[in-house]
Amino acid sequence: MEDENGGWIEFDISKGDIPDGYAAYPGISVGGGGLQSGTFNGDECSLACVNALTCVAFDFAYGDDGNGNVVGQCYFHELGTKCGTIADNPISYHMAELPVCTTD
């Protein structure tokens, strides 16, 4: 993913870390998710959602904590918010359980 200056930035979720049965959308966030308490990295957010009974999608919003550690916030989506309004968000990564959302 590129930053606003055209340079590449790194974060914790790689193609190999996408949970089975999920689709990944880097640079996208979906409205309506519930903010989870605590600070997460991408792997922790993914694992927390996969292990939560009602979580079918999540947004991981990330940034540098000033010490070179990528940390962020984790938002869980249930069925009612999984297909909410999408927005471009360069510091977010959205993953959703398959099937993917479609529009008519």
UniProtKB/TrEMBL annotation:
User: What's the protein called, per UniProt?
Assistant: Apple domain-containing protein
